[in-house]
């Protein structure tokens, strides 16, 4: 598969801890590929890591732009997708 069909996923906070990675290249199963389906791909590559809950509460950014509605975003390869986990502070 060509690198043009890959995306780079950046992991922060709990997502980084769960995967043990700060970034990963992921081949898109189809092109274009809906961002809303990316969580299932990530979970399948990192089973039994608790990612279902982490990704379910996280936000996404694509090429440094926050995504309001993942259902409306199609990934075409070459993009950088960040998993932005919720943070708490005090």
From TrEMBL:
Species assigned in the record: Somion occarium
Coiled-coil regions, chain positions: none
Compartments, as annotated in UniProt: Cytoplasm
Post-translational modification: C-terminal thiocarboxylation occurs in 2 steps, it is first acyl-adenylated (-COAMP) via the hesA/moeB/thiF part of UBA4, then thiocarboxylated (-COSH) via the rhodanese domain of UBA4.
Known pathway: Cofactor biosynthesis; molybdopterin biosynthesis
Main location: cytoplasm
Record's keyword terms, sorted: Cytoplasm, Molybdenum cofactor biosynthesis, Nucleotide-binding, Phosphoprotein
Keyword ATP-binding: no
KW Membrane (keyword) present: no
InterPro entries, per database record: Beta-grasp_dom_sf, MOCS2A, MOCS2A_euk, Mopterin_synth/thiamin_S_b
Family recorded in the similarity comment: Belongs to the MoaD family. MOCS2A subfamily.
Annotated positions of the 1-thioglycine modification: 90
Known role: Acts as a sulfur carrier required for molybdopterin biosynthesis. Component of the molybdopterin synthase complex that catalyzes the conversion of precursor Z into molybdopterin by mediating the incorporation of 2 sulfur atoms into precursor Z to generate a dithiolene group. In the complex, serves as sulfur donor by being thiocarboxylated (-COSH) at its C-terminus by UBA4. After interaction with MOCS2B, the sulfur is then transferred to precursor Z to form molybdopterin.
Protein name, as recorded: Molybdopterin synthase sulfur carrier subunit
Residues carrying Glycyl adenylate: 90
Subunit structure comment from the entry: Heterotetramer; composed of 2 small (MOCS2A) and 2 large (MOCS2B) subunits.
């Amino acid at each position: 598969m060509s690198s043009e069909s890959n995306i780079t996923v950046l992991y922060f906070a709990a997502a980084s801890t769960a995967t043990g990675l700060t970034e990963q290249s992921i081949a898109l199963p189809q092109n274009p590929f809906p961002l809303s389906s990316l969580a299932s791909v990530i979970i399948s590559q990192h089973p039994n890591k608790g990612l279902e809950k982490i990704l379910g509460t996280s936000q996404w950014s694509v090429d440094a732009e926050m995504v309001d509605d993942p259902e409306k975003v199609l990934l075409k390869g070459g993009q950088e997708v960040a998993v932005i986990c919720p943070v708490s502070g005090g």
